[in-house]
Amino acid sequence: MLRDLTRGLVRENAVFVTLIGLCPALAVTTHVVNALGLGTALLVVLVASNVSVSLLRTIVAPRLHYPAFLGGAALFVTVVDLAMQAYVPELSARLGIFVPLIVVNCAILARADVFARQVVPVRAMLDGLGFGVGFLLSLTLIALVREILGSGTITLFAMGDFDGVLVIPRMSEHPVQVMVLAPGALLTVGYLCALFSRSRGRTKAGASGREEGT
Amino acid sequence: MSYVGIILTFVLVNNFVLTYFLGICPAIGASRRVESSIGLGLAASILMAVAALLTWALRTWILLPLGLLFLQTFVFVLSILALGYYLERLVETVAPALHRSVGKYLPTVSTNCVVLGIALIAARSDFGPLESLIAGVSAGGGFLLVMVIVSTIREKLETEPVPRALRGVPIAFITTGLMALALLAFDQAFLRNVVG
Questions:
Q1: What are phi and psi of A55, to 5 degrees?
Q2: Which of A82, B13, B29, B115 is deepest in the core (most CB within 10 A)?
Q3: Domain residue spans in chain B?
Q4: Which residues of chain A lie closer than 8 angstroms to B21, CB-CB?
Q5: Could you write out the DSSP letters of every residue in B3-27?
Q6: Any domain includes A54
């Protein structure tokens, strides 16, 4: 059971290891707040979709699995999208088409296909939770690297007096602007992947217990 | 926007893979062989063109009059899935040779974000039917272009010495990143200079 939860966190991390659901990881990670927003949205949809797939697995005929799973995911995404438009309109506008695009995020279909349709709802839920949180953390990590290097700031939610933007002294005066542009995303993910696979290789060899890629 | 503007936008300036990162999974994950990337790219282009037109029709004639616009994502996803399925059937019966090289990728592509992506972008930009069709074809062309370039580079990379940690996926990302860097030359200013 516990393995269901931890699988997606590190060992099969969607972004760095199994490389699924990459489009949002690259596109929205110019600001930390975008990463948190989209990561949370995906987490909610993934858990809901995994549970519904697991519930539907015996009811729906196998050849109708794909349409049923996609339809379910589309409904959850619509709910999340509308909720975001209502409660966090600014964030929702910045994420644009990437919220509706969660439906076809490979992570959703892959988990439904590989795991959720073979197990009981509780295990499917834990699996969704693990992958969702793993995804959220990876997205945040990429966004942190890109935003700190690319604009010298860390953008979070505005609360009270705090306008939501942490400015890093020095870094913000001469940022490496390419990091917040499209190529910066690809380069960052490339190098983080390399770091991740390197430290994973080391863990496997038993040389050290370090598991995180940072 | 003029038609030339739309073509340039979706092929170069806002290339799907390199600026929106739509379809990055097949570009990075599946593109080791040039032949299969051409097949996949062509299948995507065809599906994107038809899907852009179909979703325009669904949106204008069904969703808008009924006030059901909030169901857009749901309707688009399922109609694209069905479209991929039936187009494959059609290609299989009409042109079996084409099915072996291109058609067999249609169902795979129908669950990819490039197709839903162009449908959503066309809907958000309020494109007309012809504009949607052209945007679909050009975005597909841009996707095909990047698929072919990336897979060619990766074929060459297979014989090159690459540091162990960078081998495979990481180096593919970095290569694509450098390509995207080159394509930054085609920006909004370029678009304005060309189409005014």
A1: -70, -35
A2: B115
A3: 3-23+32-186
A4: 22-23, 26-27, 182, 185
A5: HHHHHHIIIIIT-IIIII-TTHHII
A6: yes
Rounded (10°) CA dihedral A95, A98, A102, A106:
-130
Is A200 part of any domain? no
State how far the Cα of B119 lies from the Cα of B101, in Å rounded to an integer. 25
Is the residue at A36 inside a domain? Answer: yes
A16: three-class secondary structure by DSSP: coil
Rounded Cα gap, residues A154 and A19, in angstroms: 26
Residue pLDDT, tens place only, A100-114: 888 888 788 888 888
- For residue A116, the enclosing domain spans 2-147
- The per-residue pLDDT for range B18-66, each reduced to its tens digit, is 888 888 877 777 667 888 888 888 999 999 999 999 999 999 999 999 9
Here the contacts of B188-193 (C-beta below 8 Å, separation 24 or greater) are: B188/B13, B190/B12, B190/B13, B191/B5, B191/B8, B191/B9, B191/B13
What residues of A are in contact with residue B82 (Cβ under 8 Å)? 67
Please give the structure tokens belonging to residue A119.
Answer: 């197990």
> So what's the pLDDT on residue B15?
87
Residue A137 to residue A17: CA distance in whole angstroms: 13
- Count of domains in chain A? 1
**pTM check: above 0.80:** yes
Over range B142-153, report the average pLDDT.
Answer: 89
Residues in chain B closer than 8 A to A73 (CB atoms): 77
Query: Which tens digits make up the pLDDT trace of A109-162?
Result: 888 888 888 888 889 999 999 989 988 998 999 999 999 998 888 888 777 667
Contact across the interface for B113 and A74, Cβ inside 8 Å: no
State whether B77 and A198 contact (CB < 8 Å). no
Q: Please tell me whether residue B160 adopts helix, strand or coil conformation.
A: coil
Put simply, whether B130 touches A (Cβ < 8 Å) is no
A94 falls within a domain: yes
